[in-house]
What does this fold into?
Amino acid sequence: MMAKKWLAVALMTMVMSVFVLAGCGGGKVDNSSGSTGENPGADASLLDTIKSRGKLIVGVKYDTKLFGLKNPANNEVEGFDVDIAKALAKSILGDETKIELKEVTSKTRIPMLDNNEIDMIVATMTVTEERKEQVDFSEVYFKAGQSLLVKKGSAIKGIDDIAKGTKVLAVKGSTSVDNIIEKAPDATVLEFDNYQDAFGALKAGQGDVLTTDNAILYGMVAQDPGYEVVGEPFTDEPYGIAIKKGETELADAVNNELAAMKESGEYNTIYERWIGEAPSE
Amino acid sequence: MDFANAFSSDNLRFIFEGFFMTLKVAFLSIVYSFLLGSVVGIIRYMKVPVLSPILGVLVEVLRNLPLLLIMFFARFALPDIGIQLGPVYAAIVALTLFEGAMISEIVRSGLQSIDKGQIEAARSSGLGYMRTLWHIVLPQGLRRMVPPLVSQFISLLKDTSLAVVISLPELMNQSKIVSGQNQNYVIPILLLAAILYFTVNYALSLVAKRLETKIV
Amino acid sequence: MPDFSILIEYFDFYIEGFVNTIYASILALLGSFLLGTVIAVFRITTVKPLRWLGTVYVEFIRNIPLLLIVYLFYLVLPMLGITLNGFISGTIGLTVYTAAFIAETIRAGIMSVPKGQSEAALSSGLTYVQTMRYVILPQAIKIVIPPLSNQFINLVKNSSVLSVIAGLDLMYFGDRVAGKTYATFDTYIFVAVFYLVLTLPLSYAALILERRLAKHS
It folds into this structure.
């Protein structure tokens, strides 16, 4: 019996040490980023890699109407973010079809960028100070603000109506979670993997209100007019294109193209196509 | 509920694409996990020094973690050690490791269930260890393994649905995208998904019953 | 080394999820044991409709994914006017799913009790229910305890699907921590360790139990 007990203890210790070792290895490789993944050499810039590869790989949302939504009718991903990404592919590689889209969620996008799986994130991503420590951002390309979505006729008309016990639905890994906890500390926040799941839960009556950026919420209203956006936006959510830290050449190329698009009016065209009105300012 | 629009040809095509992805990932994972599980199970049955205890620890760890977590690791943590996998391969690797660990235990206990007397008899009649294993132990063990193996394969097929968290466009994921379009689609689409899963798995279990009565 | 400051800083998150995972697993175990026993008895009675019901339940539930069942309780039940939160609908989903497996385990246990015993009990004047309650089930339970303990381990692992429907379990809080730290690997390593703290002793206990019962018989 004693022997068995010792065996169990030994087993547990071994398991723990396996994990500690694995963690150790993980940490080390992390520090020497650039030599892992697809990058051929630490010296080659990501922009050169993209050009020699002849394809821009962009992480976009697949479940966010107006920004990036996979359409079952034609299997295409469509939206504002997708059109911006295509315009970037056109300016970098001369052809907007030289692009590969990969699905990201708020939860998965930074790990995927870290792993060199995507060249950039164009996925309703708010520029924040904490995120700036993880990634570099382009200039702001869209101005959103966090707002609230409720079923039509709901008693909740704005952020002040969120009381103790109000169930607020949000998406894992998004800024909306931190904001709503700050603005309405009494609320019960429930988090989902993606917007599809969160909206599905709202429709099933699993929450009183869904919170995220107003632009995304308008997309949900377009999908189901039984819901409405209420109250004024209560935060500023400037969207930026995220690029791996230190890839300044690529960041410059992106910023130049964004400026050129605004200059030429292409930006306004894309904006109006999806948002339905001209950008303010 | 709106069956007519929920089952529009676009939606059905989209869902069946997911279904084929489920079948593809499940089939490949069944093959790989069976191979991996058999090798590990035999090594552990033979008590190969050094290798056997190491594999034993790995099997215990994998068996005792949620598959959801293993999938997430395969997709987002393996890259930290230089292994980059897209959703399809991450799902296959996770399923192969997890189900392989389960299968290795089935194989090991299947082999261990063979009467020791038979092995001794074979050995004393001059048969070598490997030949005893190959001719005496394996064929009998395999027969006993068929029922648990098939239920493990059915589990695997069901478990592919967990790849929804790593955005694999399989049946569950595609169903959710379609049912998200309209609240009236939720029941018809979930029902369709259930029927598809059920049909494949039930067919598998019928085949298993056949095999069982035939072999034993 | 994984970054232990994550564990320290978010310890409350991990523990809250850990405790909820334990709650969900225990509740689902009790529930599925009761439900599973009832279905097992259905499956072996001579009453045709009950038998049919038991078979349909087991065959249907065993062959569809747990995730689908959980969605059913979380997203579809509200359409019928019953809204249960993520934790409750997830736990009910786990119960319904696991009950199908437990029913089969218990049925096998009951079948392993020699038929002569139930005939003897019936002919000595016991009713069917009494025969089950006092003669068959006590013996069957001894046989089914080892496989049941394996089901419990499966339950703990499967409870991670609660994270998909905001069920506040360990995996859900792991996601929450990862969303704050951006350290995917390190965050989930601790999640894994918490799961192993639960499941490894359980599987070890199951092994001992199995060996002990094998020795006695």
